[in-house]
Amino acid sequence: MADCPDLEQRDPQNLNNHVKVAFEDALGEPEGAHSIDCVWRNSYKCFNCGKNCCYKFLTTLCGIFIALYWGCEFAMITFQHVWCFTPSLRVLAIMMGCCQKFYGTIVACCLAPLCETCGLFFSKISVTNA
Q1: What is the rounded distance in angstroms from the CA atom of residue 130 to the CA atom of residue 126?
Q2: Distance between CA atoms of 19 and 12, rounded to whole angstroms?
Q3: Is 86 helix (H, G, I), strand (E, B) or coil?
Q4: Nearest-CA neighbor of 35 among 47, 23, 43?
Q5: Transmembrane segments in this chain: where (predicted)?
Q6: b or e along 42-55 (b: 16 or more beta carbons within 10 Å of the residue's beta carbon)?
Q7: What distances in angstroms separate CA 51 from CA 8, 43, 45, 58, one per listed residue?
Q8: CA-CA distance, 100 to 82, in Å (whole number)?
Q9: 23: Cβ contacts below 8 Å, ≥ 6 apart
Q10: pTM value?
Q11: How far is C-alpha 60 from the chain's CA centre?
Q12: What percent of the chain stands above pLDDT 70?
């Protein structure tokens, strides 16, 4: 684990590939309905300026606190799995192993003779085609 995050590639796992926030992903004029070139150019600049300023403002205001919250959330999930869920699953696996042996013995003692008797009984039936 690095002491500092990668400041160039900030989404190495492509977690947010679906988030399309470029001007071209949000706005587009079809053929035959074009605005004046200066309007389109200035719209592009305003869109990017608004998006960048707003995003930087929100991340400056909330980013650290949200990151702290998610860090605590994942810490709680890890704690639950390490200290609660995994030991509980291990206890369940041990107990079910005992139950499997217990019920296997009951089935072998009670049902096996019954199935063997039915097999002997039905083995005496013969089918002939007329």
Answers
A1: 13
A2: 14
A3: helix
A4: 43
A5: none
A6: eeeeebeeeeeeee
A7: 20, 12, 10, 11
A8: 26
A9: 43, 44, 47, 48
A10: 0.62
A11: 29
A12: 98
- Residue 130: pLDDT above 80? no
Answer yes or no: are the C-beta atoms of 22 and 33 closer than 8 Å. Answer: no
Distance CA(98)–CA(91), nearest Å, equals 11
Q: How far apart are CA 81 and CA 75, in angstroms?
A: 10
Which DSSP category does 12 fall into? T
CB 12 within 8 A of CB 6: yes
Any idea how long the chain is?
Answer: 130
Q: How confident is the model at residue 2 (pLDDT cuts 50, 70, 90)?
A: low
For the record, the structure tokens of 46 come out as 């305003």
Q: Which CA distances in Å does 22 have to 12, 111, 117?
A: 19, 70, 77
Q: Is 4 helix (H, G, I), strand (E, B) or coil?
A: coil
Q: What is the pLDDT of residues 15-54, one digit of tens each?
A: 888 888 899 998 999 999 999 999 999 999 999 999 999 9
What gap in Å lies between CA 123 and CA 128, rounded to an integer? 14
Quickly tell me which residue has 């600049």 as its tokens.
45
